[in-house]
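debug: dumping io for the single-chain case to check the tokenizer round-trip. Nothing else runs in this session.
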Amino acid sequence: MKLSNLLVSGAVCAGLIFVEGIREQLNFKVTKYQICTPKMKSGVKPKKIVFLSDLHNTEYGKENARLLYAIRKAGPDLILIGGDMLIGKRGILPEPALNFVGKLPEIAPVYYANGNHEQRMKEDTVKYGNMFYLYRSELCEKGVHFLENESAVAEFDGIKIRLTGLELPRKTYEKFTRYHLQKEDIVKQVGTNQKEKNTADIDHMDYYEILLAHNPVYYHAYKAWGADLVLSGHLHGGIARIPGWRGVITPQAFLFPKYSGEMTEEDRQVIVVSRGLGMHTIKFRLFNRPELIMLEIAGE
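debug: decoded output
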């Protein structure tokens, strides 16, 4: 009788977890963070940044109407994309991502750094043909700026922001592998940060360095490179989260990643990791709703 009760209780718990896991995928939440920096003039209105990552062709309402409404309502100065807006698998078209991202320049300037899904499509033309290049070309025509191991400067009243999009070698995403990334590896991809380039030029030393780096696992290297703010995604919040602590697992199959779906400040440098807006292979979340991130960069 006790065993029967345990089995029934277990089945009920499993059912509830399954239902909750499905429910959480239906709606996104809005997560707001404020970051204070001495590189922002005091008394100036904070600058608003919307950060999007890991949409994976997901749609919230027809043609992502609900997601677009939330972004418009935020009134951002910049929209930054951290990659994996589409799904890099043979036979899956990027139309949902293309339609959504193509509307964003109507709201604010858009800068897009690739994730591992865009990168694999870009590099493996035997498998994917020219699909990524058509995707990128159409978005560029609509005003989206791609940063593929490149940098751009956005200047506002009170702050100068340098945006860098980092593409790491695909081996840094391999499962069951701990790749040892160092500052020098990042310098090879994107060069040095603006401060190191212009140590004799005081004016250039005030740039606020934002690094769009899809995989947060290598934050130690991003810090050493000199990023003031790192924006990452990739981990989908760890699939399931332990409330008040961390995500459970990374796509590389390592448990309890240190940075998985939160804002962390260390030595006046900040990393914000998005829990993502969609899923692809493992379509499950627990205590881990999809999220749209809104940042305010303010003076101290």
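debug: round-trip ok. The chain has a mean pLDDT of 91.
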